[in-house]
Amino acid sequence: MHAPTHSTGADLSQAPTVVGKQPPTPKKDARFWLIFVVLFFCCFLSALDLTAVSTALPSIAADFESTDATWIGSAYALTSTALIPWTGGLAAIFGRRPVMIGGILIFALGSALTGAAQSMAMAIGGRSVQGIGGGAILTMVEIIICDLVPLAERGTYFGIIGAVWALASTLGPPIGGALASAGAWRWLFYLNLPLCGLALVLTFIFLRIKAPETTLEEKLEQMDWWNLLFVAAATSTILGLTWGGATYAWSSYQVLVPLIVGIIGMVAFVAIERKYVKHPTVPFDILVHRDAWIGYFTTFLHSLVVLAIVYWLPAYFQMRGASPVQSGAKTLPLSFTISPLAIVVGASVTITGIWVPQNAIGWAMATIGCGLLSLLKYDSGRNAWAGFSVVVGMGLGMLYSATNFAVLAPVKPARQPYAITFYGFVRSFGQLFGIVIGSTVVSNQLQKNLPAAYVAQYGELVGDATFALIPQIKTFAEPLRTEVQIAFNDALVTLWQVLVGLSGLGFLLALALKHIPLTMEVDESWGVQVKKKEGGVQGAEEEKVGAL
């Protein structure tokens, strides 16, 4: 299959489609469901590691006596974000299965490097490798769903995948906390190795997906080598954002230079892709519809809010004196709210064909939930923090399944894998911003709010030393301990208030969405690999699973 050529905006709009009047799709057989078993497992593997480190960060920082613990999360998000567009391009040229296998192998390598790290620098390097693999895995999961399932039926499948992602993301903190409490945070990464082995076996046996029948020369001709410019520019931009306000001041050259260079590089990349590249990695015709722009931006906001909460809600419990495993357990009201809501909303879209109200309601609940979190005190009781977590979890869970329809509904089936790849890039970029903004806000506010007695005895916090401070709080004598807890809580309140504003913006944007009917078509170029009919004409194939 050759990479797609440019399409006009007129190609993107779907003819009005009423889901209830469409002919039913053929029954999906065992091959189809076995592929989805592989996808669910790979998605869980990728998502679990992204957030499991949140409760282990204070222990990692203490072991290495480092103030760069935030980079354990940022490095993963950085590499997965920068390489997602190229991952989608490679999948279009070489096929889905080889890229998935490559992603699993790279993820396993990064896990081994991080687990064996003897310094913070080595741990950050390992996480960078992990990010490449994790981003590739999740991108392939979503592309393959687009290949196999028409958009009108995709709500249930995206809902399940969203629930798997959400469950893994929110179960990660308790697992990371349990291992950190046992002084075994390295096993958080070592345990990925047998899981990756199982994922490889499942992928080799069951992930039988059609692949492009082109020669190696034709594949190389389709490679978009300008992606190297994008990767460098995106990495430079993300470095500037990560350093800003934490490692260096926003006005410093260490922040401004990479930001400026990165932004100029990305602008140059866009200009080159539009005018000179025959097979662009991200075709620009997927961006012409207003709903698509709203969908991408609200996806960015959703990912930002989710990661900020997943990283800093466990910190709220740990600064109160909870152990890592206890803080992870106290995030369960959030965990077990997000996943069911993701499934319910996905199923509701499949049944009704309606997807706009779910976006608005989800953002309304997320806004209210973040507002409630801002009411938490350093000594709030269980009813408060558990109840508030449930409310925000309901909103975020709904959005896990709802935001992608604004991106995919305006796009023809053949273009949807490219749209979902860019969707994954935007989501990953939002996750990075969630880590960066959360760390910047909390660190800056904590430096302002720390009591004079702490500064006199221990000095001011240098750089991003917030996670390194958390384990020390319980060792302080009163009244210093309570004063530091109040200062920490006030810093978190500021973060929750920022998230209220961002969620409110998402709600306003969701109100501007216009319903587009969901198509029952799929791209016949991809799908389940089929067998030759016995005694049939050479090249005759069985009916493609999941297609009309």
UniProtKB/TrEMBL annotation:
<feature type="transmembrane region" description="Helical">
    <location>
        <begin position="69"/>
        <end position="94"/>
    </location>
</feature>
<feature type="transmembrane region" description="Helical">
    <location>
        <begin position="494"/>
        <end position="513"/>
    </location>
</feature>
<dbReference type="InterPro" id="IPR036259">
    <property type="entry name" value="MFS_trans_sf"/>
</dbReference>
<dbReference type="GO" id="GO:0022857">
    <property type="term" value="F:transmembrane transporter activity"/>
</dbReference>
<feature type="transmembrane region" description="Helical">
    <location>
        <begin position="360"/>
        <end position="378"/>
    </location>
</feature>
<dbReference type="InterPro" id="IPR020846">
    <property type="entry name" value="MFS_dom"/>
</dbReference>
<feature type="transmembrane region" description="Helical">
    <location>
        <begin position="32"/>
        <end position="57"/>
    </location>
</feature>
<protein>
    <recommendedName>
        <fullName>Major facilitator superfamily (MFS) profile domain-containing protein</fullName>
    </recommendedName>
</protein>
<feature type="transmembrane region" description="Helical">
    <location>
        <begin position="131"/>
        <end position="149"/>
    </location>
</feature>
<feature type="transmembrane region" description="Helical">
    <location>
        <begin position="420"/>
        <end position="442"/>
    </location>
</feature>
<feature type="transmembrane region" description="Helical">
    <location>
        <begin position="228"/>
        <end position="246"/>
    </location>
</feature>
<feature type="transmembrane region" description="Helical">
    <location>
        <begin position="384"/>
        <end position="408"/>
    </location>
</feature>
<feature type="transmembrane region" description="Helical">
    <location>
        <begin position="101"/>
        <end position="125"/>
    </location>
</feature>
<feature type="transmembrane region" description="Helical">
    <location>
        <begin position="293"/>
        <end position="314"/>
    </location>
</feature>
<feature type="compositionally biased region" description="Polar residues">
    <location>
        <begin position="1"/>
        <end position="16"/>
    </location>
</feature>
<feature type="transmembrane region" description="Helical">
    <location>
        <begin position="156"/>
        <end position="175"/>
    </location>
</feature>
<feature type="transmembrane region" description="Helical">
    <location>
        <begin position="187"/>
        <end position="207"/>
    </location>
</feature>
<dbReference type="Pfam" id="PF07690">
    <property type="entry name" value="MFS_1"/>
</dbReference>
<keyword id="KW-0812">Transmembrane</keyword>
<feature type="region of interest" description="Disordered">
    <location>
        <begin position="1"/>
        <end position="24"/>
    </location>
</feature>
<keyword id="KW-0472">Membrane</keyword>
<dbReference type="GO" id="GO:0005886">
    <property type="term" value="C:plasma membrane"/>
</dbReference>
<dbReference type="InterPro" id="IPR011701">
    <property type="entry name" value="MFS"/>
</dbReference>
<feature type="transmembrane region" description="Helical">
    <location>
        <begin position="334"/>
        <end position="355"/>
    </location>
</feature>
<keyword id="KW-1133">Transmembrane helix</keyword>
<feature type="domain" description="Major facilitator superfamily (MFS) profile">
    <location>
        <begin position="35"/>
        <end position="483"/>
    </location>
</feature>
<feature type="transmembrane region" description="Helical">
    <location>
        <begin position="252"/>
        <end position="272"/>
    </location>
</feature>
